## 1
Amino acid sequence: MSEGLVIDVHGLTKSFGPKRVVDHFDIQVPKGAIYGFLGPNGSGKTTTIRMLCGLLTPDEGEGTCLGFDVRRQAEQIKEQVGYMTQKFSYYEDLSIRENLDFVARMYRLDRKKERVDRALADLGLADRARQLAGSLSGGWKQRLALAACLLHEPRLLLLDEPTAGVDPKARRDFWDEIRRLSAEGVTVLVSTHYMDEAVQCDFITYIAYGKKLIDGPSASIPEMVGLETWRVEGPDLPALEGRLKTEPGVVQVARFGTVLHVSGTDKAALEATVDRLTAEGTHRWSLQVAGLEEAFIYLMTGARDNYADDGGKRAA
Amino acid sequence: MSPRFSFRRFGAVLYKEFIQMRRDRITFGMMIGLPIIQLFLFGFAINADPRNLPTLVEMGDNGPLTRAVIAGMQNSSYFAFKGAVSGIGEGEEALRRGDANFVVVIPEDFERDVVRGQRPEILVAADASDPSATGGAVAALSGIVNVAIAETLVGPLAQQAGAAPFSVVVHREYNPEGKTSTNIVPGLLAIILSMTMVMITAIAIVKETERGTMEMLIATPVRPLEVMLGKILPYVFVGYVQTAVFLAAARLVFGVPFEGSVWAFFLGFNLFIVVNLALGFLISTAAKSQMQAMQLSFFTILPSILLSGFMFPFAGMPGWAQVIGQAVPATHFLRVVRKVMLKGGGLPDVTGELWALAAILVVISGIAMLRYRQTLD
């Protein structure tokens, strides 16, 4: 195990039948980091997470998780990992307390009652402990799931789209909790679709169709993608949007409320187009620092083309 | 380091399963109610030796001998005469419509021919589309007629007719009253256990996969064996409760005796429960949803009912059906139950059946374990 790396895997590959779901995936996660795991639906995020916590055995590739071999030491990994599944996976016909009790026994925890009581108090569910888990709303279910997978004080948290279907307030609270855990030294790998969650991560890796497209500190992702973005304001944006898509140098036009973000990788070509359109005087143009959101929209479109052209480089 | 088998984790799964069982009222009701309902349906409603079957008669003759034959048939309680028909055509029409199960044709000049020793024939047309319904009556018929003739023709006439008075003795071993319930109730235990044990186990396991809780379970350090035992044992308990209810009802309501060795019964019964749980487990490895698990379970229940000797005599089935029937666990348990309860059998009498059950268990659980390993990945 490399110094300070909680997850260190190389070449993880998994196929289901003829379909290669994860294709030679590498990741190095430092201790205490919040690592964002992004990608479109069906890109292999869940399968990767399952391989990391020993639920699935990779077809190829090797590495360590918490210093244990992902192929041979799944049992040891399971003892120290908290895995929160995408779908609520606790017993809906058991009460909140019964669920926590059950999980505590699965990990053979000492001071079971004390731990469960504390988890209930932290959740703010102490007075509803006897309520059936199935009767909880989405946000509360998510909090229960998080409490349950923290019960054994794991060193690594694997969260698979933890905030899907949860309201914004609950999402904010959830992320506060994740930040607090990270500050305590717990490493977090979290998959998500939400850009506002992606920006909360220290590192981001982007996976599409089983292949890793980009990986790095979240602040440097836009730079790594190499996009230049112009912001346009003015009347009749839909018409402009349609027209821009065929202009040279324009790779992507994305609408954000009352403005358009026009991006491209070929700076010279894009600037030529912008100059020409600015001369028309109908819209206001300003250069903008490319954000994560444009970067990911670009990656997502690019990935689809990569897939269709069998890995061919996207032409601007 | 986590131990190979933790009783604490096993106990937790077991406890959880009991809580869930208690909360799932419908399933719980089914587990207790189903045996009772089946017992009453099969015990009371189904009768393989039916009496009072509607019968029509064509009277070609109307003498005292003819009337004695008709009276004898009526008294046997197999036949209930509903009226007369004129001509066989009308009789066959009634059979086709299902108005009657039998049409009895007394030929013209029947008595005269009997007296002359010409051995006239009484034609009985039976609706054989349901052989089990009419079989008993047909079997009893010749005896009834001969007795009636013998009683009516006395003195020189009897000698002249040449019909030596004889009777058919039907000797019903182990069930002297010929009650269907005595035969069907013990067999029903095999059917009820197959039905509920297989289905409930399969559903209980598939439920974990379908609801996504299996993923949470296997992400914890719990071992497959702990999960399996913890999930299956509560249903063994259910099987015990069902059997207790069943035996009590069989004794108190149907007066079915328990003649033989309790130990032989207990051994066969436990073995049979385990075989069914293994079968349920095997189904759960194939089924993707609770619905599929249910359907697959029904698929295994049909042979248990039809080919085990429960509905139809095993020896009466064609060879290929007997071969399949031998592979059905219920076949062997059925024999154990009937031998022990009705014939007073002991352990040596059922050893063969116990070995057969053990062999089936080895095969089923072998396949199930192989499949279980595959589905984990």
Note: The two ends of chain A are 41 Å apart (CA to CA).
## 2
Amino acid sequence: MKKRGFTTEKIITAVTWLLILLGWYLITNLKMVSSTLVPSPQKVVTTFLAILQNGYNKISIWSHLWASFERLFLALGLAVATGIPLGLLSGYFSKVKAVIDSIVEFYRPLPPLAYYTLLVLWLGIDNTSKVTLLYLAGFAPIYIACVSAVNNIKQDYILSAKSLGANQKQIFFKIVLPACLPEIFIGLRTAVGISYTTLVAAEMVAATSGIGWMVLDASNFLKSDVIFVGILLMGASGILIDAILRFIEKRVVFWKGFV
Amino acid sequence: MEDVLIDIENLNFEYGTKANKIAALENINIKIEKGEFVCLLGPSGCGKSTLLKIIAGYLQPTTGTCKMKGESIQGPDWNRGVVFQSPTLYPWMNLKDNVEFGPKMRGVSEDEIHEISAHYLEEVKLTGFEDKWIFELSGGMKQRAEIARALANHPEVILMDEPFGALDALTRVDMQGLIREIWQKNDTTIFMITHDIDEALSLGTKVLVMSDRPGKILKEFKVDFTHKIFRDDSRHRKYDQQYFDIKDEIIDLIHSQD
């Protein structure tokens, strides 16, 4: 079990970050590096406030964030809706697995940007190609987690359910699905992480909005303060999404770790 | 012979590949009659669990037959309740939902389901724990819940695979008393695997002794210590000479094979 409250480790983490901030402050304020390359913390904060107020490139920061998250959530929704059933079916029926598994294993290790160029050619530069790219990135971890979850399921759960009179369909929905939930959540969190990094990369290649695009555009004009704001926003929202998922996970599979 | 519930004839079971076959069970003949408490006793790894799995319907015999009421057992069904060695209660359901799982799956009416679970939870002394999650229960409570879950279906026979093997000695004695009470009260038929001679003798009406692999039935004892020892309803046991004679004979039987 995790310890609650202020542990030594938490204090060490906090001190580490304070030292990083202090170092950043000192290096920039003592003019040890050019402010064009490394903006000072104060500058980043004022830029952040300015962007909050006026947006970037006449588009508000919320629109940029929303553009990114719309793509992300659309793709993840599709990945969940297809990855979970296909993964569970593949775990259940080896013939389904024979069809899907090799395809997933083939494209999974490919760098997403390698086939993104193809997707842009086929589906155009707008959202469809991006959502497809993120969908493919998110599908694999969810699918793989589901296959392994079914394979790892305690056989006695299924046998006992049969001896208690449950039919195939009941076993699937009342036993297999809940028993797989802990691993499904792990797959989901991995999928979110991978999709999110892919999203930013995709927006850097071809987009006119989104938080990744904002960073790329800023770099074209050497606005390092905007790049910093963008990166900090990406990091913070990534942590936030994962925290939300962990919160839901704790609620849904509260029994995990007690089995 | 209409009281025979489970009829096993000339049963053999082999596993492994064609080139490397291992005989697990050899020429098993067992009849379990209605109302009996049959204890199968044998050293570990002798194939006791395999035999239970065949009766449950999880495995099919290589040769020979295993019938229930004259019909060959094709697969698991709710007429044969199973209690596993380590509890297989579903952690995503609370205690009550676990106990009600069988009747719910079979489409029993709501009212009847509540009656059933209340009744059997009381019988295994878990009233008041209905809303507890499985991980909140102790080992003994889990095994009692598992028994209640099997009973809730009113199966014709309950198969138990060393149900008290993982429990501490004190809890085990409690559980033995409980299962004896349940068996007598409900007029159920029980087939139980154990490697504890005292457990077999103090519970069973029939004790089967199985050999090392390949498992054969060495001898069948008809006993009635379950009534004799505990006749006065107390937990105090009154052993007699016959008890120790049979116990010695079983020990000799098991050791004679080394």
Note: The domain at 4-79+157-255 of chain B is CATH 3.40.50.300 (Rossmann fold).
